[in-house]
Amino acid sequence: MSDTSPPEEKFDFAAHEQLAVNAYLKVHPYWTDVAAATGRVIEQAIKSRRIQVHSVQFRSKDPASFGRKASKPSDADPHQPKYRNPLREITDLSATRVITFFPRTVEAIDAVLQEEFNILDRSDKAEDLLEEERFGYQSVHYLVRLSNARAGLAEYQRFAGAITEVQVRTILQHAWAEIEHDIQYKSSAAIPRDIRRRFMALAGMLELADREFQSIQDQDAALNTAARTLVEQGKYSEVEVTPTALKLYLDQRLGADGRMSEFSYDWTVRLLKRLGFRTLDQVNECIAKYDDNRISRLLSGSRQGQLTRFEYLLLASIGEKFIERHTFAGQPWYGPRQRENLKKLLAAGILPTNYDPNPVQITPAPLTKEG
């Protein structure tokens, strides 16, 4: 007996896409506002908690991109669309991306999102990629709504109930994601073995680099904490000259000066290393006998800023070698000006110790019978 049932009508993906785009264009401005509102909330929350991130990006979905996604075939039945009702089923109409410098900051952002939003879904893409046997690099994705408290505020009421996608990833994870679209092979079953090994090595290198950057940040924080304790205890010989350590020492020795920038301390540390200093003990020994206020008023007529007074102390102690080794030693204006300052110091009875943190080591001649 032959099958007399009518043939199944072929689904019109092109028409489905066009209808979806037309419907989305009517609400696109709203989702643009949702994205901006969500992004602002996240930016303000991060700033208020003093969390350092690379960037916070937000956008509404591009209509053409929405259309392409709406017309995707279903995984279960390629003759049917994956999204029957695209406006309801596609969840990234509004999206925010937080890019961090370090992996641990991803955890801090997770805490921010938990406090500021209602979390509807959270997925770690690293686990998803492993299950799907796909190549890629991890990031954490969320579906969120504004918290009830915030949605009750007048300026946010129209966004109550709106679902936003939030992605959180490190800058190295972001770099991988940006180039992943150009990688031809996505399945480990399809990729040639030699190329697969290279992909796996690259993914491992990126993960290792992320861990190393985190380890470096942790070590730097530990060194800064230790430096603070050692400076407070006056154990300068155990503290390497760094911008943070120098600021701690000068705040203690010359008084804090909020006008000084991080760049200024960094520049001064580079000068100190050029002069041969390695530890704060050397710095302290060099300037210990000099009065910064007296020297500043003598050379400038007033009390100058912290780092200017510090350079005056170095000049007073080291003398001519300070001028010869200075970063600006090659500038025609620098030497004459500083030598005039040296004359003023000498005239006032302030004599250099000729301190040298890195003296030239002269090997003594071997002893003879006559010697």
Could you characterize the architecture of this molecule?
By secondary structure, the chain is α+β, with helices and mostly antiparallel strands. It folds into two domains: 13-210, Beta Polymerase, domain 2 (2-Layer Sandwich), CATH 3.30.460; 234-347, no CATH class. 54% of the residues lie in helices and 9% in strands. The chain has helices at 13-48, 63-70, 86-89, 103-116, 125-132, 148-151, 171-180, 193-232, 243-254, 262-275, 280-287, 292-300, 306-318, 320-325, 334-347, and strands spanning 55-60, 94-100, 117-124, 140-146, 164-170. The protein has a five-stranded mixed beta sheet. Helix 12 (292-300) crosses helix 13. The N and C termini lie far apart (126 Å). Mean pLDDT is 88; it is low at 361-371.
Summary, kept brief:
By secondary structure, the chain is of the alpha+beta class. Helix content is 54%, strand content 9%.
CATH superfamily of the largest domain: Beta Polymerase, domain 2
Relative strand content: 5-15%
Largest sheet: 5 strands, mixed
SSE run:
HEHHEHEHEHEHHHHHHHHH
Strands ordered across the widest β-sheet: 1-2-5-4-3
Intertermini distance: 126 Å
Quote the CATH topology of the largest domain: Beta Polymerase, domain 2
CATH top-level class of the largest domain = Alpha Beta
Net shape:
elongated
Write down the Rg.
Answer: 32 Å
Mean pLDDT: 88
Indicate the CATH architecture of the largest domain: 2-Layer Sandwich
Structural class by helix and strand composition:
alpha+beta
Q: How many strand units?
A: 5
Low-confidence stretches: 361-371
Number of domains: 2
